[in-house]
Write a structure and sequence with these properties.
The complex is a heterodimer of chains A (144) and B (148). Chain A is mostly helical and 144 residues long. Chain A is 70% helix and 1% strand. Chain A contains six helices and one strand, in the order βαααααα. Chain B has one domain. The chains are: A mainly alpha (144), B mainly alpha (148).
Chain lengths: 144, 148
């Protein structure tokens, strides 16, 4: 392992992370809900009346974020080097996996870890672990 | 009112993702590449989010209603089961393939990225498949009289 100091951005990472934490804090304290993106989006498929509005509103806020950002600043680089086939497969696995696992980076990784939920700690260790292994295999074993 | 605060929370969440660098899949992959030239930034994203989140959830845990008077929906499940582990495993593989998880996917969509749009479409398809499988399972259960 060697740390890539040139791309290490500790302050913006910490500040952005705190922004995410503030959003999760507002959402639980005001709406009484966990800011777990896969749960919020996946719950739309249940088509429960009275439950659709806040879900759609949260998603709209998230999708609007880059547009609001651009009112003040140019967007930072958003670089995707993955091909469309791989992206589609990856999206499919993220969709199914997060629903079976009841959460993703936000629901388990941020909210669940903040609550010290044993389920979320296990889930986060598992998806971080398989994330590390997958990148290792793609970049250093198969990709070369 | 709840819809306005949800919109605001989603917006702040998305702005946080952009500022953190989490909406940039190349940076996420550089974080997941621990044996390559590793960019540890995203560990600080999680750290910053959890530092703020833990205070909020400690307060939320002591309340039965939110400050808007809405019921607190905090997860009650405690069992570490096969679904949790296998689901997270599949999610982790998908995350490692492209460096995109659900929140950043929606931000990329909003940024007008066609790659982001393909990812979101596939992700929604995956969530839809899950929902159909879950529903057919609950129909089976109601036929056989099983209750879970």
């Amino acid at each position: 392992m060697s740390i890539d100091w040139n791309h290490f951005t500790p302050w913006s990472a910490l500040a952005g992370g705190m922004g995410i934490g503030i959003a999760a804090a507002l959402f639980v304290l005001l709406n009484g809900r966990i800011a777990g993106i896969s749960g919020i989006v996946g719950g739309l498929f249940k088509l429960q009346t009275g439950d659709m509005g806040w879900r759609m509103a949260f998603v709209a806020g998230l999708v609007a974020a880059p547009l609001v950002w651009q009112l003040f600043h140019g967007l930072p680089t958003l670089q995707i080097d993955t091909g469309y086939g791989m992206l589609a497969l990856s999206g499919l696995m993220v969709g199914i996996g997060t629903r079976y696992g009841s959460g993703c980076t936000s629901g388990h990784g941020v909210c669940g870890m903040s609550r010290l939920s044993p389920r979320s700690i296990v889930a986060t260790l598992v998806f971080m672990g398989t994330g590390f292994v997958t990148v290792y295999l793609i970049r250093h074993v198969f990709g070369g | 009112m709840a819809n306005i605060t949800a919109l605001l929370a989603g917006l702040i969440f998305g702005l946080g993702l952009i500022l953190a660098g989490m909406a940039n899949p190349a940076k996420v992959l550089a974080f997941l590449d621990i044996t390559g030239s590793w960019d540890p930034s995203l560990a600080l994203v999680m750290g910053g989010a959890i530092a703020v989140g833990s205070i909020a959830f400690a307060v939320a845990g002591r309340r039965s209603r939110s400050y808007l008077g809405l019921p607190m929906h905090l997860p009650a499940a405690r069992m570490i089961d096969k679904r949790l582990v296998l689901g997270s495993l599949v999610f982790g593989i998908g995350w490692g393939m492209a460096g995109i998880c659900p929140g950043p996917a929606l931000v990329l969509l909003g940024a007008g990225s066609s790659e982001g749009a393909v990812f979101v479409a596939a992700m929604l398809l995956g969530m839809g498949i899950f929902e159909i499988l879950e529903r057919s399972k609950s129909v089976d259960r109601s036929k056989t009289g099983q209750h879970v």
